[in-house]
Automatic annotation (TrEMBL):
Residues 27-172 form the SET domain. SUPFAM superfamilies: SET domain (SSF82199). Residues 37-95 form the Pre-SET domain. This is Suppressor of variegation 3-9-like protein 2. Zn(2+) 3 binds at C44, C77, C83, C87. Zn(2+) 1 binds at C39, C41, C44, C49. The keyword Methyltransferase applies. Zn(2+) 4 binds at C132, C197, C199, C204. It is found in: Chromosome; Nucleus. The lineage of its organism: Eukaryota, Metazoa, Chordata, Craniata, Vertebrata. Its main location: nucleus. GO terms for biological process: methylation. Residues 193-209 form the Post-SET domain. It comes from Phyllostomus discolor (pale spear-nosed bat). One of its GO terms (cellular component) is nucleus.
Length: 209
């Protein structure tokens, strides 16, 4: 359940906002969500699992917290794997496990998202289906669709996030060295239409792009 809160003004929830928990392709476009390989592990935490097949390390520790550096792709177990739903390599596909709230910000940023419960550091928070001093980091995740052009975008906490705190991430994704950085516009600033950032962070660059 997603809550909506406005204690700032009389503005109602965005009329064109729809909450979705998976990709919604444009009409006429179909996504092939069929993995080309799957594991037969009895213990995916100890054995060479799907990440090893993809040439990367298992992304999570035993507490379901991410342990790999930003920019490293995540390969979770998929529909071809013989492991069950409690597999330690099935985190993002379970969806968010926290109560979140869409709320009206008081600093002119419009609508934001905050957590209603405490979130431990390095935990999966939600998918992205910013701010200059973010508490979330972006990772590319591959489950059934292994096309590197079509990752699922997951947000993990960079520190402990207290209940009631706004969830933020850096739109420029500084430090992410994987294909997500291909979406960044590196053209000269004077040739870009720049969006003013109102995050209020001490380290704010002034613009989102």
């Amino acid at each position: 359940m997603i809550f909506v809160e406005n204690t700032v003004d009389l503005e109602g929830p965005p009329s064109d906002f729809y909450y979705i928990n998976e990709y919604k392709p444009t009409p006429g476009i179909s996504l092939v969500n069929e993995a080309t390989f799957g594991c037969s592990c009895t213990d995916c935490f100890l054995e060479k699992c799907c990440p090893a097949e993809a040439g990367v390390l298992l992304a999570y520790n035993k507490n379901q917290q991410i342990k790999i550096p930003p920019g490293t792709p995540i390969y979770e177990c998929n529909s071809r794997c013989q492991c069950g739903p409690d597999c330690p390599n099935r985190i993002v596909q379970k969806g968010t496990q926290y109560s979140l709230c869409i709320f009206r910000t008081s600093n002119g940023c419009g609508w934001g998202v905050k957590t209603l419960v405490k979130i431990k550091r390095m935990s999966f928070v939600m998918e992205y289906v910013g701010e200059c001093d973010p508490n979330l980091q972006v990772f590319n995740v591959f489950i059934d669709n292994l096309d590197t052009r079509l990752p699922r975008i997951a947000l993990f906490s960079t520190r402990t996030i207290n209940a009631g705190e706004e969830l933020t991430f850096d739109y420029q994704m500084k430090g992410s060295g994987d294909i997500s950085s291909d979406s960044i516009d590196y053209s000269p600033a004077k040739k870009r239409v720049r969006t003013v950032c109102k995050c209020g962070a001490v380290t704010c660059r002034g613009y989102l792009n």
